[in-house]
User: What shape does this take?
Amino acid sequence: MKEKEIAIIEAAIKLYATKGFASTSIQEIVTESGMSKGAFYLYFKSKDALLFAILEYYFDRIQKNVNAYDNENLSPREKFSKQLSALLNTLLEHKEFVIMQSREQAIPLNEQVKTLLLRKLFEAHRFYQESLLSIYGNKIENHLWDLSLMMDGMFNSYVKLLLFDKEHFQVNELVAFLLKRMDSIVKGLDGEKPLAITEKVEDLFKRTESFFLKNDHDIIDLIENMKKIVSDLENSEDLKVSIEVLEGEINTEHPRLAVIKGMLSNFKGIGPLDFYRKEIAKQYNLNI
Assistant: This one.
């Protein structure tokens, strides 16, 4: 990622944290970043494209800092402790972003953003589960979801305290405290039946994804959403024509797959439209 691109992202995060996504204009972002509007559109097609780039940038930073301990000669407990500390320190470093997420209606949950956030939520639980399993062994295997849900709840609750009262909560002390609580919880689960059974929880995740992402999209809805996104893009006349041709072909009695595939190819590389491009292709079994 280029230096100017990062400058725009970090300026946007600060503004979103204080004003919210909807109330922040592109002009304010470029002014805050010291860039021109032309430079903004060089890197980002729209505010939605910028938002998705912010999320990817933020999650990539977290992943990089957590993965930094993968090749170190540490015990499972030491590794998990250092990873949790790195995660907390990264959250504190990007305090503005966390505040942005917590603001009411701060993030417009379009399909692309929802897909990313749901995937990251699932990955977080997998991280907790793999780490806890490496520490406590197979005896907790039936309780992995119970433990990761409790770990996630405790972690996120203390993150809120750290954000607003960092002086009274030291990261290393907090991580040690959390791990001791997990020791107590694991000990207390001896002989208990799991409440969050793996099959049930994973099925719930799938049903949640299906509900929020509406996997079986009506093509008319997909086209309408594409129109809304394109209307906010700069220099989008060619894209509008492509949507008109695509819509017209889809509405014929016998749609020509070659035409649909050709029109969809015109949206390749345009972040906010990528989800819709793939969804339409999937419904026609097209390989794009």
